[in-house]
Design a protein that fits this description.
With about 475 residues, the chain is of the alpha/beta class. It contains 19 helices and 8 strands. Strands 3-2-1-4-5-6-7-8 form an 8-stranded mixed beta sheet, sandwiched between helices. The model has no long low-confidence stretch (mean pLDDT about 95).
Amino acid sequence: MTPTADIGIIGLAVMGQNLALNMDDHGFTVAVFNRTVEKVDHFLANEAQGTNIIAAHSLEELIGALKKPRRVMLMVKAGPPVDGMIEKLTPLMEPGDIIIDGGNSHYPDSTRRTQELAERGLLFIGAGVSGGEIGARYGPSIMPGGSPEAWPYVKPIFQAIAAKVADGSPCCDWVGEQGAGHFVKMVHNGIEYGDMQLVSEAYDLMRHALRMSLEDISEVFSVWNAGQLNSYLLEITADILRFKDEDGAPLLDKILDAAGQKGTGKWAAVAALDYGIPLTLIGEAVFARDLSALKAERVAASAELGSPVPFFEGDQAAFVDELGHALYASKIVSYAQGYMLMQAVSQELGWNLAYGDIALMWRGGCIIRAAFLDDIKAAFDRKPGLVNLLLDPFFGSQMREVAPGWRRVVAAAVSLGIPLPAMSTALAFFDGYRSERLPANLLQAQRDYFGAHTYERLDRPRGEFFHTNWTGQGGDVTAGSYNA
């Protein structure tokens, strides 16, 4: 067989199928394979009918159909299935060939795979793909990292199929070496968890504190979406709130309030703990899903502990405006924390992530696409070494402007007994970040009192550590110091 395919795709679930169709739309010849080979024939006879997509019924047939250097994209379940497929592929491939993992893999796995395949002479790309099935079909955001030598061979395909913004720029560019691509996708997903929780909290306040109808809440989200809060998640939320079930009743009211998750938000929270970054909002968003999953327990607790019946008695129109301010400020904190994590890991691992360019990759195709990503790009253009988005003049002025309303919203929710885990922790982070002094001096004194962990002094240079014999019964021996 004369090799004619530009790229091969393994895995024909919805994302794999739609990426193959997207590539075909853009003039690339795609060979496809699935472990259950009947799915290959079904795809060719249905969704891919009339395309130039090539069916492969074995890995050998797939590899034989590919031009050199061979490019094979895995769209299989993350974890052991990816490693298993790589083990089957590598004996069939030659030095310089490229394996691409387009699933939601954990970034340390992509770092490991880059190194292991390099030892075999093969190149690896771990590509985060965001946008769901519609994005995969018509233009996702793609975040590739791994072997830099592989990028020129994959770039024309990925940038062609990626989402495009108004100026025609593709929402795809090289992120960095090793696991950088999947790391940035993990942070994206963590921010996605936070954004979804924030929008849900705004809905909850309007629905239960203001007693607004779903139609009226939908209208509020549509108005917000026309302004500085413009984002994909607000757009789809407005649609969800208007959607009716077969009996004409709102479908949303019939959906069980127990959220699922696939783990990427948890990975972001764990990475933040590993690197000592206060990713509080994303952490609370993950825990909120965990709490929601305790449905039966919550029902029992409601009966035992009492469930609040809240009603806001103030100016509802003004409160809705302030709620929009609270949502906007909290979103800024969410992105600021996500960027803090990216900066910490990039510095530790030497990835040199281009923070402004990452914001550009998130402007289209992906789930967290939002208008203010252009403002994030502008912030890093103004100061490439920006330590925190909150210290950018634009974002700083925005936060100062909306903070009073944000504070009133959180206070009202607390008084009404409506939980706002993401909005309230975002406010706590904001207040903590701008506090010249925190009560950690007492915490350090406590640690030294019971464990001789030492402390630093305000009247001495940083890096000098002291211990006090607080009880008169201790000694001068101190515990070893370390940072978790």
